[in-house]
Amino acid sequence: MNPFEFLKNAIMPKPAEPLPEGALLIDVRSPVEFAGGSIHGAIHIPVDRIHLINAHKPKIDLSRPIVVFCASGMRSSSARRQLLSMGYETVINGGGISNLSIRLSNPNH
After folding, report:
1. Is 23 exposed, middle or buried (0-12, 13-18, 19+ CB in 10 A)?
2. Could you tell me the sign of the dihedral formed by the alpha carbons of 35, 98, 101, 91, in that order?
3. Does CATH number 3.40.250.10 belong to domain 22-105?
4. In angstroms, rounded to a whole number, what is the distance separating the alpha carbons of residues 106 and 87?
5. Which parts of the chain have pLDDT scores under 50?
């Protein structure tokens, strides 16, 4: 396995990781990407501003499950680590928006 594949496997979400019921979806892509469309019901907090999540109105409960996603899973991996370090209990890297959309439309996928 080359170093790129190793790194990709290390940071990408595991496909079998279940998506919790009632999870808050957070799109961490750029404003331009978000303006091009997102997953219905997702809120937008760019990865470089995820540290400001506590300013979100209404405030997000630390125990509420969160699924973060971006274009490929790289930025959402970073956002996940930041949110966990801030005390959020259940944060899942949903990976890329395309794959997450498929998973949400077909929970058995």
Report:
1. middle
2. negative
3. yes
4. 30
5. 16, 109
